[in-house]
Design goal:
This protein folds into two domains: 46 residues; 166 residues, Thrombin, subunit H (Beta Barrel). With 287 residues, the chain is of the alpha+beta class. Helix 1 runs antiparallel to helix 2. It starts with a helix and ends in a 15-residue tail after the last strand.
């Protein structure tokens, strides 16, 4: 709209100039001079339109080029971020594998490494499926651990896979003992309303001296779990009036050492390693 008005004004100026210059010269010398002087800026402005248009075109081209370059940079940045995330994932996995291999070497148990391959939302805190089975020596009720501690036990086995019942399930009961004491008890899974997993250790002696932070280990009683596997630590002391035995025994809340929500690399405990006999020193040679 603005451009149309400018063109119309320009045409009117041209017509006015033409009329002025059609008047006889002797009558319009002064008028023509004043008209030229007053219209000189306008002519200069209109004469500069092509150059300004060229400049505007160059600016538009430059803006388009910059926009394309910015778009290329955004795509490259997104690609680099994806590659960086992939590398971090590989680094995390390599770190976990190194930790797992080190744990297997120093463990006093014979372990079969396994990986979680399935987990259902409806039983998230209760079961996981691993990629090891009968062909790998896995059997029912064998303990399953991570580098942090006990996870659960084998609930069912096929030739190549197994289902693990986790500590978070109330049916996975573990005979346990508290660090630095002779206190025995049973650990039972107890999922909370917020979805976190904790366990309750019950049937502890009423006179037991227990502190928050004490570690709980498998006691070996019952024959299902070998002795000495770390389970977790005491996070809360249950008042005697709130125990299932109405004060006849003590209970504590145990926070599992292993993060049951983020299971990936696991180990199935096959058996305890046999102690290697020290080789006899060779008899001295007779001189």
């Amino acid at each position: 709209m603005r451009l149309k008005l400018q063109i119309a004004a320009f045409i009117l100026v041209i017509v006015a100039i033409s009329v002025v210059f059609m008047i006889p010269a002797e009558d319009t010398v002064g008028i023509k001079t004043r008209v030229r002087e007053s219209l000189a800026p306008a002519f200069k402005w209109f004469s500069g339109i092509p150059s300004r248009a060229d400049l505007l075109g160059e600016k538009l081209k430059r803006a388009e080029r910059l926009e394309r370059e910015n778009e290329d940079l955004r795509k490259a940045n997104a690609r680099f971020q994806a590659e960086n995330n992939t590398l971090r994932s590989f680094e995390k996995e390599n770190t976990e594998l190194r930790q797992a291999l080190k744990y297997k070497e120093v463990s006093r148990f014979e372990l079969v490494p396994a990986r979680v391959i399935a987990r259902e939302p409806s039983t998230w805190w209760q079961y996981v499926t691993i990629d090891r089975g009968e062909r790998d020596g896995v059997e029912l009720n064998q303990a399953v651990v991570t580098t942090q501690g006990l996870v659960g036990k084998i609930a069912s086995v096929s030739a190549t896979t197994s289902k693990v019942v986790l500590l978070g399930d109330e049916n996975c009961r573990v005979a346990a003992t508290l660090e630095g004491t002779n206190e025995q008890g049973i650990i039972i899974g107890q999922p909370t309303e917020m979805g976190a997993v904790q366990c309750r250790m019950t049937f502890i002696s009423r006179t037991a001296s227990i502190d928050v932070g004490q570690l709980a280990f498998t006691s070996g009683l019952g024959g299902v779990f070998p002795q000495g596997l770390r389970i977790g630590e005491v996070s809360q002391l249950v008042p005697l009036r709130d125990t299932g035995g109405h004060g006849l025994y003590r209970e504590v809340i145990i926070q599992p050492s292993a993060d049951l929500a983020k299971l990936d690399f696991l180990f199935v405990v096959l058996r305890q390693k046999e102690a290697k006999a020290n080789p006899k020193a060779p008899a001295p040679k007779a001189r």
